[in-house]
Amino acid sequence: MKILILMTSFNGLSQAVFESLIQKECHSIKLAFAGNDETLREDVCAFDPDLILCPFLKQRIPNDIWQKYLCIILHPGIKGDRGPSAIDWALMQSQPLWGMTALQADQEMDAGAIWASFEFETRLTTKASLYRDEVTQAAIQCVDQVIDQCFQQSYEPQPLDYSSPSIIGRLQPLMKQHDRAIDWQRDNALTIVRKINAADSFPGVRDNLFGIEVSLFNASVMETVTTREPKQLVAQSNGAIALSTIDGAIWIGHLKQVGDPYFKLPAAWVLKGHLSGALNFDLAANSAFDLMGFEELQYRREGDIGYLQFNFHNGAMGTQQCRRLLAAYQQVSLTDVKLIVLTGGREFWSNGIHLNHIEAAADPAAESWKNINAINDIVEAILTNQKQLTIAALGSNAGAGGVMMALACDHVVARKSVMMNPHYQSMGLYGSEYWTYSLPKRVGQSLAKALTTECLPIGAVRAQAINLIDAYLDSSYEKFEGRVAAHLAEWLDSLCFDTRLQNKKLDRAKDEAAKPLQQYRNEELKEMKQCFASAEYHEARQSFVFKRSCGRLPAHLRKVFGVELSQVKKLA
Ligand code: COA
């Protein structure tokens, strides 16, 4: 089947749909960006697809295209739900069940006939989290069903009929800032967190903090009791601030100052220059709040296994965050645990160096250098650990240096739905994190080149097939850690810990004799130094941080065409 994926950007959901189609190996796939109708017409005409799938589309499809071709829109809502703020409303209304629906494009937005719909239970979480996990999984189920139905001659989709009892959803308006506004005198901590969760990633909840217009992101309830007036600063920890509410307090991890040229940063950084002397930012240093701080690192031990979680917002790891993670890893490696499992974060395992922190630095090139060295130090500690085995357990997606950091581990296991982007070139970077050692060691030189130059995502199933990772487990995020523990028990049953550790030491010594780790690092950093001095990197980073799109399909995605996709696909 010829399938055109039409999208506003190649975001995580589009990547997951792409991956599910690639895995089927029987479809010819092409990617296209919406926005320029003329280019789109040319692409559609040249490819003449059997199906146009739209996993993430903000624009209207031109009439002549949807009238001629079967166009299926993936809408993140239950049957009958319509409008651009689907998940926002679901979270604001605390809907226990939500869904994903595949609709045929029609004259009216989201009002076409229904081809498939899947529901899931919601969680107390952010919009982006639900989107990346449950919504994405339901989208893939919808796509499978749509394709099956395309082959059924007699199949008729279900027209949208609001009198049908199976249609519960309704047309909902665009959620405006006044719908999201926090009433600090009435809203309790949980209500405020729900409001911020529903606006996660974009647009955030507008408010005025200490005289500055900001958008609020990344909130959680703080386990504390305070008798202060609401909206007072009560603590700070690791860049987050805590504000009092009528019933306690909330953490706010990130803020974006409203207007240009601002972007999302740790809340304490945004407020720092704007606070009067009355508001003391050293509160955390001498208060017990640190104990219930905005903790990004968590450690838990079970028998011989130590689980180290690093829940960095958006998986981005700034210099200080890398240093804290290194210190935690070193501390754990001093204990007598045998296995150290790195579990990453709920939203992302890791996405490498922190491009926003770098953008905010007075000297971005110098900060890039510090950041890459700080993450390299973690990777070095993992690679040279002679006492324990380190396991990367990817319950969520990873990108760039985050993937390479995982590859440094002795065993890599991922959730089946995990997507990885093991490349840096689209950010204008050569990359480091010892990837020139770890990646070819796992997949060979030829695939390492394909993965790092084609700049395409790869899912856990194909990743395991090419030995990029060792295993994948079909599991929900909540059950993943338990599945990992069972998997590791089997892994050690097949070859015991002592033998594995001994093999690792021998292997490392052999590799070190052939080419010292330091040499890999030096060579990578030499390339990175040039990247950090190049305009290409600074422009790519700024486009990413300021979310500017060129509106055209990037060159590397234009190459995606049909079954001749890549070596990676063929070998998988
Ligand atoms: N630094 C700072 N922020 C990052 C980041 C990084 N390295 N990687 C991701 N983010 C942020 C995005 O800006 C976005 O922020 P938002 O909450 O304001 O929307 C959020 O994480 C989610 O990223 P998004 O790109 O929307 O997710 P996705 O699932 O569509 O794509 C990636 C995931 C990893 C492919 C993509 O985020 C990416 O290319 N990241 C950059 C990786 C990189 O080049 N790292 C530096 C080299 S090591």
Automatic annotation (TrEMBL):
<feature type="domain" description="Formyl transferase N-terminal">
    <location>
        <begin position="37"/>
        <end position="128"/>
    </location>
</feature>
<dbReference type="InterPro" id="IPR029045">
    <property type="entry name" value="ClpP/crotonase-like_dom_sf"/>
</dbReference>
<dbReference type="InterPro" id="IPR047180">
    <property type="entry name" value="HoxX-like"/>
</dbReference>
<dbReference type="InterPro" id="IPR009188">
    <property type="entry name" value="NiFe-hyd_mat_HypX/HoxX"/>
</dbReference>
<dbReference type="InterPro" id="IPR011034">
    <property type="entry name" value="Formyl_transferase-like_C_sf"/>
</dbReference>
<dbReference type="GO" id="GO:0003824">
    <property type="term" value="F:catalytic activity"/>
</dbReference>
<dbReference type="Pfam" id="PF00551">
    <property type="entry name" value="Formyl_trans_N"/>
</dbReference>
<protein>
    <submittedName>
        <fullName>Hydrogenase maturation factor HoxX</fullName>
    </submittedName>
</protein>
<dbReference type="InterPro" id="IPR005793">
    <property type="entry name" value="Formyl_trans_C"/>
</dbReference>
<dbReference type="InterPro" id="IPR001753">
    <property type="entry name" value="Enoyl-CoA_hydra/iso"/>
</dbReference>
<feature type="domain" description="Formyl transferase C-terminal">
    <location>
        <begin position="175"/>
        <end position="257"/>
    </location>
</feature>
<dbReference type="Pfam" id="PF00378">
    <property type="entry name" value="ECH_1"/>
</dbReference>
<dbReference type="InterPro" id="IPR036477">
    <property type="entry name" value="Formyl_transf_N_sf"/>
</dbReference>
<dbReference type="Pfam" id="PF02911">
    <property type="entry name" value="Formyl_trans_C"/>
</dbReference>
<dbReference type="InterPro" id="IPR002376">
    <property type="entry name" value="Formyl_transf_N"/>
</dbReference>
